[in-house]
Write a structure and sequence with these properties.
- The chain is of the alpha/beta class and 413 residues long.
- The protein has 3 domains: 138 residues, 3-Layer(aba) Sandwich (Rossmann fold); 185 residues, NAD(P)-binding Rossmann-like Domain (Rossmann fold), CATH 3.40.50; 82 residues, Alpha-Beta Plaits (2-Layer Sandwich).
- The strands form 3 sheets. It has a 7-stranded parallel β-sheet, with helices on both faces. A 5-stranded parallel β-sheet has the order 2-1-3-4-5.
- It is elongated.
- The structure holds 1,4-dihydronicotinamide adenine dinucleotide (NAI).
């Protein structure tokens, strides 16, 4: 019988942008050694050339995967974004040619949570202001407006992956935790849900945002809502830059309504380290405010990079080894068990009526016994996985390739 499942040594992998070495280690451990690494990103023209013959591509946020790059990719079967966002990839074009895209949405949750807790402590002690004053030669030793976080109330807006981690860390330091989310969430530890955002704002000494960017969270913190925060409280945002009206926040800090703020994300962020950072929160009139500004580094730690390397490489290995697309950002999600002893056929097709009927007709006409079958579709693409006895796989694969609407097929064993 012809051997059609691609030898791992023949699977060519290209990793761009200096992806953390944990990715290569993970790929090697799984038997993938045909890996080329490039430290920087490539232009569209360079990538169109370089991508030929590549089966698996790893990128970070700077490499643009345009529809031209997708068209130029003759062998590509999967893309791993070794980062959180996937805006740099044309997800429609990749889906159209049956290429699943994977990323690492949760590898840096702990990093963000730790920063938020540290900021809560520093802000309630007035440290940003004291430190800035000392750099100017001012010694202001006083306990005024300096508080412990123990027994204070933390209000978490958005009780998802990061919000819940912040909740656990805050309780372990003796804080009371309240939260507000648009969907019903089971509280962790002794945290409890508030009926509304306004109720949370009125109760919390520290308010921290962990929401996604949606039309509903855009400018969620208006001047009116900031005015509804407890006097002397502090505000932290390490979620998305559009959530807070920064002019209103600057005014609330100037007036003394808020004790301080820590902001990691901004509506308009410099595109590179060479561009100036412009914001109403920057020192104005030589005033030294109790404000911590950080350049969108909430999730940027060495540990997060290590985790991202492992998480994305594992997803690519799993897809290549057994066809599983769980947690792909653009593809129908199919979770698959191992298939010892049998051969596995992967069939990616346009989601048009009749394809599944046609597939099942082939198996029935050829009297091929289906050991297991999995199907998932989204509005554009259908993904069928069929396990069959080894002696039938070649003929079944040849037949499947003829089905109208087929985008691509693979055989695994
Ligand atoms: P998640 O999706 O796990 O949690 C978000 C939560 O917010 C969900 O529970 C959702 O129901 C809730 N939510 C949505 N709309 C809401 C609204 N209008 N009001 C209240 N709750 C609402 O997301 P995750 O992983 O916890 O990330 C949270 C945010 O942190 C995201 O915006 C993400 O982009 C950002 N982030 C920032 C990083 C940084 O470097 N500063 C690093 C990683 C994530």
């Amino acid at each position: 019988m012809a051997k059609t499942s691609l030898d791992k040594q023949k699977i060519r992998i290209l990793l761009l942008e200096g992806i953390h070495p944990t990715a290569l280690e993970t790929l090697n451990r799984a038997g993938y050694h045909n890996v080329e690494e490039v430290s920087g990103s490539l232009s569209e023209d360079q990538l169109c050339e370089k991508i030929q013959g590549i089966h698996i591509l790893g990128i970070r946020s700077r490499t643009q995967i345009t529809s031209r790059v997708v068209d130029a990719a003759d062998k590509l079967m999967a893309i791993g974004c070794f980062c959180i966002g996937t805006n740099q990839v044309d997800l429609v074009a990749t889906l159209g040619v049956g290429i699943p895209v994977f990323n690492a949405p949760f590898s840096n949750t702990r990093s963000v949570a730790e920063l938020v807790i540290a900021e809560a402590i520093l802000l309630l002690r007035g440290i940003p202001q004291k430190s800035a004053l000392m750099h100017r030669g001012v010694w202001q030793k006083s306990a005024k407006n300096s508080f412990e976080i123990r027994n204070k109330t933390l209000g978490i807006v958005g009780y998802g992956n990061i919000g819940t981690q912040v909740s656990v860390l805050a309780e372990s330091l003796g804080m009371h935790v309240v939260f507000h989310d648009v969907t019903a969430k089971l509280p962790i530890g002794r945290a409890h849900a508030m009926a509304s955002l306004d109720e949370l704002l009125a109760a919390a000494d520290v308010v921290s945002f962990h929401v996604p960017e949606t039309p509903a969270t855009r400018m969620l913190m208006t001047a009116e809502r900031i005015a509804g925060m407890k006097p002397g409280s502090v505000l932290i945002n390490a979620s998305r830059g559009t959530v807070i009206d920064l002019d209103a926040l600057a005014a609330a800090l100037d007036s003394g309504h808020l004790l301080g703020a820590a902001v990691d994300v901004f509506p308009k962020e410099p595109k590179s380290n060479d561009e100036e950072f412009i914001s109403p929160l920057r020192n104005h009139d030589n005033q030294v405010a109790n404000v911590l500004l950080t350049p969108h580094v909430g999730g940027s730690t060495v540990e997060a990079q290590e985790n991202i390397g492992v998480e994305v490489a594992e997803k690519l290995v799993t897809y290549s080894d057994n066809g599983s697309t769980v947690a792909s950002v653009n593809f129908p999600s199919v979770g698959l068990p191992e298939h010892p002893g049998s051969h596995r056929l992967l069939h990616i097709h346009q989601n048009i009526p009749g394809v599944l009927t046609e597939i099942n007709r082939i198996f029935s006409d050829k009297s091929i016994n289906i050991l297991a079958q999995y199907l998932q579709t989204n509005e554009k693409v259908g993904y069928v996985v069929i396990d069959v006895e080894q002696q039938h796989s070649s003929i079944a694969l040849a037949e499947l390739q003829q089905v109208a609407g087929t985008i691509r097929t693979r055989l695994l064993f």
